[in-house]
Design a protein that fits this description.
Layout lengths: L9 E10 L6 E11 L4 E5 L6 H9 L6 E6 L2 E2 L10 E4 L11 H11 L4 H14 L15 H13 L5 E5 L7 H18 L2 E6 L2 H7 L2 E6 L2 E6 L1 H6 L4 H6 L6 E2 L10 E5 L5 E2 L5 E10 L4 E7 L2 E7 L11 E5 L6 E4 L8
Parallel strand pairs: 3-8, 3-9, 6-7, 7-8
Antiparallel strand pairs: 1-2, 1-4, 4-5, 9-10, 11-12, 12-18, 13-17, 14-15, 14-17, 15-16
């Protein structure tokens, strides 16, 4: 069977997970329903403690849901052992056997299944070739860089030819440049394998650059599901608006540029310097980033951040400035619930 030929839709129906009992009970996942299509690269995005890893572990079978159902393909898998779910999981820690070579680490899932030695070797070589590891097959993990070790962990997952790949913050231990390189490798890997990926991260850059869709989580619930561009352009809540985007959206105090029951948000790229504009402040910091300038200003509406063209005249620290934004670039959220309003 070719890599990626066996894939599966994943469905979560009203899934919840509580830990502890009585007064010490904590709800990690709160009534989540999510439909992940065949071949999709779904990102579970959210801050630490929002329940995204717990949700992934319930798909894997490492945690049992307190309520609700998990389906892989057409099969309800709540009571199915992890090894029978046809999934492969890649963790933040590489979880490699330090005494085994790269070849032996990649072959290990097949060895456990009783796959013949010649077939194991061929499958491991194929997976290693996909990830550029053929020159390292005789090395042990201690002789590899962090990025190479992470690729070995991915190869070990690939060799199983699972229906679903589950990845729990696999890049968080890598340095910035290696994270960028490995992001590109993972997107290309998904394209070539044409398999279903579910990927947990707190890094919005990973979510925006890798996912076909993003599920933004907060306090055990899903706030919004959509393509990265949809989530950025039309955030469903004030939480999503501030979580997606670097720098985050400016959220003005209730009543500023809106009514008393609405909070207005403006992306930094849409906040423009304008003589006589409705928002005024004093420049507190100027960040020169080469391709752009970030202008920070203290105002009666709190700290404002504007993305400015470096070719324009840049105000100095301490200078008074005014800002404006076109009406179509204003995002409005209910002052009480934080939910987007039209």
């Amino acid at each position: 069977m070719a890599y990626g030929a066996h894939v599966a839709r994943v469905r979560l129906e009203h899934v919840s997970k509580q830990f502890g009992e009585g007064d010490e009970q904590v709800t990690a996942v709160d009534d989540i329903s999510l439909d992940i299509e065949d071949h999709e690269f779904m990102i579970l995005l959210g801050p630490s403690g929002c329940g995204k890893s717990t949700l992934l572990r319930m798909v894997a079978g490492l945690e049992d849901p307190t309520a609700g159902d998990v389906f892989i393909g057409d099969h309800r898998v709540n009571d199915q052992l992890p090894k029978l779910r046809d999934i492969a999981m890649v963790f933040q820690s590489y979880a490699l056997y330090p005494h085994k070579t790269v070849r032996a680490n990649i072959e290990f899932p097949l060895k456990v299944r009783g796959v013949p030695k010649a077939q194991r070797a061929a499958e491991a070589l194929h997976a290693a070739d996909v990830l550029g590891l053929t020159d390292y097959m005789k090395r042990k993990p201690g002789q590899l860089s962090g990025g190479q070790r992470q690729r070995v962990a991915l190869a070990r997952a690939i060799v199983r030819k699972p229906a679903v790949f589950l990845m729990d913050e696999p890049l968080s231990n890598l340095d910035a440049k290696l994270r960028g390189d490995t992001r590109t490798e993972l997107v290309d890997l998904h394209r070539r394998l044409d398999s279903t990926f579910i990927y947990v991260t707190h890094d919005q850059v990973e979510a925006m650059t890798m996912g076909s869709r993003v599920a933004v989580m907060n306090a055990g619930r899903i706030e919004q599901v959509g393509t990265p561009q949809e989530v950025y352009d039309r955030p469903a809540s004030a939480f999503v608006a501030q979580f997606i985007g670097t720098p985050p959206m400016n959220l003005l105090p209730v009543g500023v540029l809106g009514t008393d029951d609405v909070q207005v948000g403006i992306r930094p790229e849409h906040l423009v310097l304008s003589t006589g504009g409705p928002l005024s402040g004093t420049v507190s910091m100027v960040e020169h980033l080469g391709h752009e300038v970030l202008l920070h200003a203290e105002s009666g509406a709190g700290r404002l951040v504007a993305r400015v063209d470096p070719a324009s005249v840049i105000p100095a620290v301490g200078q008074a400035v005014q800002f404006d934004a076109a009406p179509q670039h204003l995002h409005r959220f209910d002052a009480t619930s934080g939910v987007r309003v039209s």
